[in-house]
């Protein structure tokens, strides 16, 4: 779709996003893998249709669907080498999958809906967050003996692993984000932010971005302090930072626009139309050249960070 421009300084380039079909209900989470040994990356999506999909990262081409959940899938993540996937579902389970063969490796049973799951450093350890307010860590080889590492005051809605800091980041449905070091789980650090819509980690695990109300806040996990805080004139549904720390991609909750903003100043660089429903998640590829968005409309879309450059299957035209 054409970019909408509100400034004469914006590039006079029309961007056509790549629409990736396959889901039948809202797409709620997206994650790119790291760059693999073969210099490639993959994209995995979680959807309320209960069927997470693995795609080729640069093109969005369908590679396979993980079949086995009996409820909505709220989270889908890939291991560091992209050989395994972990998914969290409304069917009271998280599942670890062989991402190459598409086969289930193990089911991690819970007593409530599981909203978040991620690998902790390697494919042998998984952290999960559930509606019973609990963050658990599982040894995949002993799935019946999880340990509780954090307890929130409300249902846990998101769990992510910071590979740089070696901590579990979990957010609940109220206003609390917890940062838990598995080496000392009793020393949990917390952030209190009203109206959290989405929490995202930069690809290096150093920055935590939060979309809340009409604010975008970026936290430095090394110094454990706020690095950026921007007020905007729209309800933000998601905010993600690119690997180079030059751009923030933000989704609008009601106007459905995808905005690209300057990381240093927060000023809007461009805005795009494409989705027909609110954007629930966004993430950048490991090289930062593209980003993916997932929406209530059931689609995944890929966008160029710099429209007009050749990348994958991209099609752009000059005005």
TrEMBL record:
<dbReference type="GO" id="GO:0003723">
    <property type="term" value="F:RNA binding"/>
</dbReference>
<keyword id="KW-0508">mRNA splicing</keyword>
<dbReference type="InterPro" id="IPR036322">
    <property type="entry name" value="WD40_repeat_dom_sf"/>
</dbReference>
<feature type="repeat" description="WD">
    <location>
        <begin position="149"/>
        <end position="190"/>
    </location>
</feature>
<feature type="repeat" description="WD">
    <location>
        <begin position="272"/>
        <end position="304"/>
    </location>
</feature>
<dbReference type="Pfam" id="PF00400">
    <property type="entry name" value="WD40"/>
</dbReference>
<keyword id="KW-0853">WD repeat</keyword>
<dbReference type="GO" id="GO:0032797">
    <property type="term" value="C:SMN complex"/>
</dbReference>
<keyword id="KW-0507">mRNA processing</keyword>
<keyword id="KW-0677">Repeat</keyword>
<dbReference type="InterPro" id="IPR015943">
    <property type="entry name" value="WD40/YVTN_repeat-like_dom_sf"/>
</dbReference>
<dbReference type="InterPro" id="IPR001680">
    <property type="entry name" value="WD40_rpt"/>
</dbReference>
<feature type="repeat" description="WD">
    <location>
        <begin position="107"/>
        <end position="148"/>
    </location>
</feature>
<comment type="similarity">
    <text>Belongs to the WD repeat STRAP family.</text>
</comment>
<dbReference type="GO" id="GO:0000387">
    <property type="term" value="P:spliceosomal snRNP assembly"/>
</dbReference>
<feature type="repeat" description="WD">
    <location>
        <begin position="66"/>
        <end position="107"/>
    </location>
</feature>
<dbReference type="InterPro" id="IPR020472">
    <property type="entry name" value="WD40_PAC1"/>
</dbReference>
<protein>
    <recommendedName>
        <fullName>Serine-threonine kinase receptor-associated protein</fullName>
    </recommendedName>
</protein>
């Amino acid at each position: 779709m054409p970019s909408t421009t509100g400034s004469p300084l914006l590039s006079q380039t029309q961007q056509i996003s790549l629409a990736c079909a396959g889901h039948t209900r809202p797409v709620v989470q997206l994650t790119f893998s790291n760059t693999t040994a073969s210099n490639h990356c993959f994209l995995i999506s979680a959807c309320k249709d209960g069927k997470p999909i693995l795609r080729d990262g640069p093109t969005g081409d369908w590679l396979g669907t993980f079949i086995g959940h009996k409820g909505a899938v709220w989270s889908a993540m890939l291991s560091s080498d992209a050989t395994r996937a972990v998914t969290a579902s409304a069917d009271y389970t998280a599942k670890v999958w062989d991402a190459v063969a598409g086969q289930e490796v193990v089911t991690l049973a819970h007593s409530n809906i599981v909203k978040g799951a991620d690998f902790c450093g390697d494919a042998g350890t998984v952290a999960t967050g559930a509606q019973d307010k609990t963050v658990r860590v599982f040894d995949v080889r002993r799935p019946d003996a999880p340990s509780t590492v954090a307890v929130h005051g409300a249902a846990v809605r998101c769990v992510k692993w910071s590979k740089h800091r070696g901590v579990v980041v979990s957010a609940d449905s109220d206003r609390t984000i917890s940062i838990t070091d598995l080496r000392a789980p009793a020393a949990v650090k917390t952030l209190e932010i009203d109206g959290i819509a989405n929490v995202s980690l930069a690809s290096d695990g150093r920055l935590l971005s939060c979309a809340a109300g009409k604010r975008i806040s970026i936290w430095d996990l090394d110094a454990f302090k706020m690095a950026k805080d921007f007020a905007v004139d729209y309800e933000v549904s998601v905010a993600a930072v690119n690997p180079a720390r030059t751009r923030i991609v933000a989704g609008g909750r009601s106007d459905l626009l995808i905005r690209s903003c300057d990381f240093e100043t927060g000023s809007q660089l461009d805005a795009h139309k494409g989705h027909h429903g609110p954007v629930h998640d966004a993430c950048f590829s490991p090289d930062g050249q593209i980003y993916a968005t997932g929406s209530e409309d059931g689609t995944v879309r890929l966008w160029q960070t710099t429209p007009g450059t050749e990348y994958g299957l991209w099609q752009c035209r000059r005005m």
